[in-house]
TrEMBL record:
Reaction(s) the record says it catalyses: N(4)-(alpha-D-Man-(1->2)-alpha-D-Man-(1->2)-alpha-D-Man-(1->3)-[alpha-D-Man-(1->3)-[alpha-D-Man-(1->2)-alpha-D-Man-(1->6)]-alpha-D-Man-(1->6)]-beta-D-Man-(1->4)-beta-D-GlcNAc-(1->4)-beta-D-GlcNAc)-L-asparaginyl-[protein] (N-glucan mannose isomer 8A1,2,3B1,3) + 3 H2O = N(4)-(alpha-D-Man-(1->3)-[alpha-D-Man-(1->3)-[alpha-D-Man-(1->6)]-alpha-D-Man-(1->6)]-beta-D-Man-(1->4)-beta-D-GlcNAc-(1->4)-beta-D-GlcNAc)-L-asparaginyl-[protein] (N-glucan mannose isomer 5A1,2) + 3 beta-D-mannose; N(4)-(alpha-D-Man-(1->2)-alpha-D-Man-(1->2)-alpha-D-Man-(1->3)-[alpha-D-Man-(1->2)-alpha-D-Man-(1->3)-[alpha-D-Man-(1->2)-alpha-D-Man-(1->6)]-alpha-D-Man-(1->6)]-beta-D-Man-(1->4)-beta-D-GlcNAc-(1->4)-beta-D-GlcNAc)-L-asparaginyl-[protein] (N-glucan mannose isomer 9A1,2,3B1,2,3) + 4 H2O = N(4)-(alpha-D-Man-(1->3)-[alpha-D-Man-(1->3)-[alpha-D-Man-(1->6)]-alpha-D-Man-(1->6)]-beta-D-Man-(1->4)-beta-D-GlcNAc-(1->4)-beta-D-GlcNAc)-L-asparaginyl-[protein] (N-glucan mannose isomer 5A1,2) + 4 beta-D-mannose
Protein name per UniProt: alpha-1,2-Mannosidase
Transmembrane is among the record's keywords: yes
Keyword Transmembrane: yes
Organism: Nothoprocta ornata
């Protein structure tokens, strides 16, 4: 009886206590309740962040050779190199002052700038893209500022739809290069976090990724303008280098498997005239329009076949074969000599060759030179020569303008050679490809004309693109007083200034036997995996 009574009293007391608590809660204002909910939510987010920032398993760092100095002995060359470093400082300082944390800078309006490739959030694209250039130029205070911003502010849990390709080459590539150069863990951790956010883009019926993915929801889709819902060759075909490094650094084969799946699928497909079309439908696995380009929409796919082989310490023969087959077909169908003797690479459109070459295509001169060693039938001399001819043509496209800066696209039709015809192809947006080719040609030949051409471009950029708030693109390279586009592209700091700096440095700075540059000029070390296997995947190699 007593026990029953005691229990009943306890239940009554508990009940009253609960009622009291509920009343207390109800007394709280809506704002107070919301604040409590927010605090709880924040706790969960913090927990998650802690989990995500857990250190990754240690892996042996590849042999890192030549990450400092490259100081030339010749005072004239040193002076030129110093000038390029000063230009980098001007670009960075102005971004630091007027665009900090934004993706890019508007150097005339002196405020932040962004485009849809970066989604709608401020991800500091210029900071991430510029880090390794700052590092090799010895701008260490600036590098540290960038690192601090990344550590504190770079957050990928945002409701933002980004380009998988652009984020891969600029952010993952930039972070990985910064990690290898500096050894700072934060860059590796951020790269891996971001890669995890890109993985849902591969959830398509074929495993060919969507062009865009929402970092928060993981929902992907393709660009509205791309041939009947297709994915783009140069986008899904430019992930290999970064993804192999991610698997190497994490021991998780998931990244490697994604890109190898793409490769296997491409290998199985028929290629019209041996050429890869620029468009592939990720739902059906069928090609879209039969357009082939070594410029926009195709370019870096070919580049990454070659670089996959180089990065594997020349053991990935499958990639080398795909590269050799592809450039043989390109040479046969797309490369011609103009009446005036200029070698150019045209665009293939449904069985017809358009005699037009893009500024983007000019990177191919460097690619041919880089791939010369190890080419089929010992055609090394031939490919080095082809690289030199493309470099010459692209230099002509600069030299035939008023500003001595190259247009976005130029024709080889009738009497017109290496000159832009349409008004909307006359712009120069601080692109690197021509300078990139000068640098590779310089490394392989040491012909002084490449330094001379690089210096001409440096002076033209400084004269016509420099403004007090940074560097801007120009709308017409044939006009003596062109309008500015008011954008300082992040690739100007990542690529254009880096290639120029390397052109005036000694070859022992980032030697090509040890480093492979991704398509955004971020150097990644060659993985000497001869005696090892990629964790979890004995099939590698
Ligand atoms: C860069 O983002 C990369 O080089 C890419 O492969 C092509 N275009 C720009 C620079 O022009």
């Amino acid at each position: 009886r007593e026990e029953e009574e005691r229990l009943r009293n306890k239940i009554r007391a508990d009940h009253e206590k609960a009622l009291e608590e509920a009343k207390e809660k109800l007394k709280k204002s809506r704002d107070e309740i919301q604040a409590e909910i927010q605090t709880e939510k924040n706790k969960v987010v913090q927990e998650l962040k802690k989990k995500e920032s857990k250190p990754l398993p240690p892996v042996p760092l590849p042999n890192l050779i030549g990450i400092n100095s490259g100081e030339p002995a010749d005072p004239d060359v040193r002076e030129k190199r110093d000038k390029i470093k000063e230009m980098m400082k001007h670009a960075w300082d102005n971004y630091r002052q007027y665009g900090w944390g934004h993706n890019e800078l508007k150097p005339i309006a002196r405020k932040g700038h962004s485009t849809n490739i970066f989604g709608n959030s401020q991800m500091g694209a210029t900071i991430v893209d510029a880090l390794d250039t700052l590092y090799i130029m010895g701008l260490h205070d600036e590098f540290r500022e960038g690192q601090e911003w990344i550590d504190k502010n770079l957050d990928f849990s945002v409701n933002s739809e980004v380009s998988v390709f652009e984020v891969n080459i600029r952010f993952i590539g930039g972070l990985l290069a910064a990690y290898y150069l500096s050894g700072q863990e934060v860059f590796k951790i951020k790269a891996v976090q971001l890669a995890g956010k890109l993985l849902p883009a591969f959830n398509t019926p074929t495993g060919i990724p969507w062009a865009m993915v929402n970092l928060k929801s993981g929902v992907g889709r393709n660009w509205g303008w791309a041939s009947a819902g297709s994915s783009i060759l140069a986008e899904f075909g430019t992930l290999h280098m970064e993804f192999v490094h991610l698997s190497y650094l994490t021991g998780d084969p998931v990244y490697y498997n994604k890109v190898m799946h793409i490769r296997k699928l491409l290998q199985k497909m028929d290629r019209p005239n041996g050429l890869y079309p620029n468009y592939l439908n990720p739902r059906t696995g069928r090609w879209g329009q039969h357009h082939t380009s070594v410029g926009g929409l195709g370019d870096s796919f070919y580049e990454y076949l070659l670089k996959a082989w180089l990065m594997s310490d020349k053991t990935d023969m499958e990639a080398r074969k795909m590269y050799d087959d592809a450039i043989e077909a390109i040479e046969k169908h797309l490369i011609r000599k103009s009446n005036g003797g200029l070698t150019f690479i045209g665009e293939w459109k449904n069985g017809h060759l358009e005699r037009k070459m893009g500024h983007l295509t000019c990177f191919a001169g460097g690619m041919f030179a880089l791939g010369a060693d190890g080419s089929r039938d010992d055609k090394a001399g031939h490919y080095l020569q082809l690289g030199a001819e493309i470099a010459h043509t692209c230099h002509e496209s600069y030299d035939r303008t008023t500003l001595k800066l190259g247009p976005e696209a130029f024709k080889f039709d009738g009497g017109v050679e290496a000159v832009a015809v349409r008004q909307n192809e006359k712009y120069y947006i601080l692109r690197p490809e021509v300078i990139e080719t000068y640098w590779y040609m310089w490394r392989f030949t040491h012909d002084p004309k490449y330094r001379q051409w690089g210096w001409e471009a440096t002076q033209a950029i400084d004269k016509y693109c420099r403004v007090s708030g940074g560097f801007s693109g120009v709308k017409d390279v044939y006009s003596s007083s062109p309008a500015y586009d008011d954008v300082q592209q992040s690739f100007f700091l990542a690529e254009t200034l880096k290639y120029l700096y390397l052109l005036f440095s000694n070859d022992d700075l980032l030697p090509l036997d040890n480093w492979v540059f991704n398509t955004e000029a971020h150097p990644l070390p060659v993985l000497h995996l001869a005696n090892t296997t990629l964790s979890g995947n004995p099939a590698y190699r």
